[in-house]
Specification:
Distance between the termini of chain A: 21 Å
Strand content of chain B: under 5%
Number of helices of chain B: 13
CATH topology of the largest domain in chain A: Alpha-Beta Plaits
Shape of chain B: globular
CATH class of the largest domain in chain A: Alpha Beta
Oligomer: heterodimer
Largest sheet of chain A: 3 strands, mixed
Order of helices and strands of chain B: HHHHHHHHHHHHH
Order of helices and strands of chain A: HHHHEHEEEHEEHEEHHEHE
Largest interface: A-B, 54 and 43 residues
Helix content of chain A: 25-40%
Largest sheet of chain B: none
CATH architecture of the largest domain in chain A: 2-Layer Sandwich
Number of strands of chain B: 0
């Protein structure tokens, strides 16, 4: 079975070559081809959009400032690290030019739990101690059926106090890096009462630091435990896939620091990008799929134990 | 899962603390008190006449301070008005500003109308600063005519009718905030708004009984036995509905035994064993059920009836607080990894500490005391002086 993000770069409009009619693409939330194919889906989409439009119009009628517009562009600039007026307008212009969609792929078959990504993220994003924008979980499936999960130390296992495991008892083990899933239907964005949570034109969930009231509703709503209230700033904090870096056509810090290429970031709308090619070839899955959040973070090689 | 414990690294920081417990607790007291007041003004339950004014003023005093715990909780309280200036149409929370403001306005107008005749009379008779205050509160009114009193009565009834759904929305909405969080299996249930609403009515009536008995004792007045009995009956019925809904939700979760039930069952039997099993169910639900059943017996001695009702009401107030705690804090004691639990030691000091919570709960009572000095909470024909 072929999981469907590849359709985003599939001009034929199908759900990936490997799908049977009954299979579907496995990721309908991101699948334009399926929408076209299903009249029921089209009706649902229409109703969804009409409802959103109605609510949006109501909101706009009440208060024009509640729409994104210039304020949101400025927030994007802030999130991308631009502080000067030139930087703000430059980032906004850059956003307008780029009509891209980013995706992230984690290959658990490659990850070795080195922890380099963790340090890189903390340094790059000034993440306070005791909080994490990204982390790596180690899953050990024992032969007797037990599953042990622990957190990879930021310094890696060497020198850590985590006891060694007898490899003879282990049936399977792998590392599962975690970060923001950048959901298409992000519950964190939905619940934010003041438009502080917003989606960039590239589909990245960001936080407007000038609007956030620090109510932590988004923290509660995120099913993946990725959001937290930054104790230094008092605003919601989260992984942005290093939005400030990707604005400069750089890779996120965790991707760049990974010594084995277990984290792959790229454009889903470019069929020639590495992520598109790999998603087209290898079956992938998402976390907590039943919640209908449609994450843009996909995994290779995880079991149902990973959530 | 084999029981190995694993917690997501951001989960140990419990984001919603005692202030978010207090907020639904206070709005519950408001909603419950208002409904009692409406039982008198709309449904003409004459037995409730002695507490009708107290119920309304109590609702106003608690409602006036309902935002305090939220402001203490917000990390950026200076931006609190953003929720009204730039509300997001997709957020359940963004409705707060409008719902709260409408309800507060409704309460203010109704209280003013109920006390208008007294305010105008005192504006004419009182001298000095208090006279000035009454003249300001009278808004220029100098006399009360029969026609204006009839208009007042009509308006009060209309506001009471509108206020019932408004009170339900105010509190049901709080339940919806939790019930709509699909990331949390302890919260995510469509029953949540109804459960919150039912427990709000319970807590509101219980608080009214406690306040009425306490104030009568302080004023050296015998409480109206028919009134207390009537309140106790309403309380008993509401308690049955509220607890049934709470148990229904729990039994449903257990019977369904979904993917996360293993975490929830451990949460109930270990982490919330005392606050849920002992306080909420045993002490807070079963004991008051029996006490109230004994109290409402028609041939019960009035003094004994009042003691039983008072004790049951105190236990119910503890039960509802425990219920709020178990929902709000309990829902954050397990990690979203569903593989482990976190600790939450409630701080004593600080913005979200125990002392701050006690102060927040005391403020409406102080306001009620002040209101009692300014306005006649008791009917002039109260004939139960000892």
């Amino acid at each position: 079975m072929n999981f469907g993000l590849n359709i985003l770069n599939n001009s034929a409009g199908g759900c990936g070559s490997g799908n049977s009619a009954s299979d579907g693409c496995g990721d309908h939330g991101a699948c334009g081809g399926c929408r076209e194919a299903s009249p029921e889906r089209s009706r649902r989409d229409f109703l969804k959009r009409a409802t959103t439009f109605a609510f949006g119009s109501f909101s706009l009628t009440l208060l024009p400032v509640s729409s994104g517009g210039a304020a949101e562009q400025q927030a994007i600039a802030l999130a991308s690290g631009a502080s000067s007026a030139t930087g703000v307008s430059g980032a906004a212009a850059a956003v307008k030019e780029k009509e891209v969609l980013y995706g992230f792929l984690v290959d658990t078959e490659k990850c070795v739990g080195a922890g380099k990504c963790l340090t890189a993220c903390r340094v790059e994003n000034n993440v306070p101690e005791g909080y994490s924008r990204t982390w790596v979980e180690r899953f050990v499936h024992f032969k007797d059926g037990r599953v042990q999960v622990d957190l990879v130390p930021e310094t890696g296992y060497a020198g850590s106090d985590i006891p060694a495991i007898n490899p003879d008892l282990v049936e399977r083990a792998y590392f599962a890096p975690k970060l923001c899933n950048q959901c298409v239907d992000a519950p964190c964005n939905q619940v934010c009462p003041v438009h502080a949570a917003f989606t960039s034109p590239e589909g990245i969930e960001l936080v407007d630091p000038d609007r956030c009231i620090g109510c932590a509703y988004c923290v509660q709503a995120c099913p993946y435990g990725v959001r937290f209230i930054n104790p230094d700033t008092g605003i919601a904090d989260k992984c942005t896939w290093c939005y400030h870096r990707i604005q400069r056509d750089e890779q996120p810090a965790c991707v760049e620091s990974c010594p084995v290429g277990a984290r792959v970031f790229g454009r889903l709308d470019d069929p020639q990008s590495e992520i598109s090619k790999r998603i087209a070839k290898i079956p992938t899955s998402v976390l907590k799929e039943h919640l209908g959040t449609h994450p843009k973070l996909r995994y290779i090689g995880i079991t149902g134990e990973v959530n | 899962m084999d029981g190995s414990s694993f917690v997501f690294p951001n989960d140990p920081h419990v984001a919603w603390s005692i202030m978010i417990v207090l907020y639904p607790y206070i709005t519950g007291l408001v909603a419950g008190a208002f409904i009692v007041s409406s039982l008198y003004h709309v449904f003409h339950q004459e037995a409730l006449r002695p507490v009708a004014r107290l119920a309304l003023v109590k609702a106003l005093c608690f409602c006036a301070f309902a935002t305090v715990p939220l402001l203490l909780h917000l990390h950026h309280p200076e931006r609190a008005l953003n929720i009204m200036i730039t509300p997001s149409a997709t957020s359940a929370m963004s409705g707060f500003g409008i719902i709260y403001s409408v309800y507060m306005l409704l309460l203010l107008v109704e209280v003013w109308l109920v006390f208008r005749a007294d305010i105008v009379a005192r504006a004419q008779s009182a001298r000095g600063p208090s006279g000035l205050l009454y003249r300001i509160l009278a808004f220029g009114d100098r006399e009360i005519t029969k026609e204006s009193q009839a208009a007042d009565a009509w308006l009060i009834r209309a506001l009471s009718i509108v206020g019932i759904p408004a009170a339900c929305v105010l509190h049901g909405y709080v339940g919806f905030l939790f019930g709509a969080v699909k990331a949390n299996p302890w919260w995510s249930t469509a029953l949540m708004p109804i459960i919150f609403l039912a427990s709000a009515v319970v807590s509101g009536i219980a608080a009214l009984i406690v306040l009425y008995l306490f104030m009568c004792w302080r004023r050296n007045v015998t409480p109206d036995a028919a009134c207390v009995r009537s309140l106790s009956r309403y309380l008993w019925s509401s308690l049955i509905i509220a607890v049934s809904l709470e148990m229904l939700e729990l039994v449903h979760m257990a019977y369904e035994a979904g993917a996360e039930w293993h975490v929830l069952s451990t949460l109930l039997t270990e982490r919330l064993a005392v606050s849920y099993g002992v306080v909420q169910v045993l002490i807070g639900s079963l004991c008051p059920f029996v006490l109230l059943l004994l109290a409402i017996h028609p041939r019960r001695n009035p003094k004994l009836m009042q003691s039983l009702s008072g004790l049951a009401s105190v236990l119910i107030l503890i039960q509802v607080f425990a219920m709020r705690w178990n929902v709000v804090v309990g829902g954050q004691l397990f990690s979203k990894s569903f593989r482990g639990f976190v600790e939450f030691p409630l701080p004593i000091g600080g913005r979200e500490g125990l002392i701050a919570a006690a102060v927040v709960l005391t403020l409406p009572l102080i306001a009620l005391w002040v209101a009692g000095r300014l306005l006649p909470l008791w009917s002039a024909d109260e004939s139960c002086q000892t």
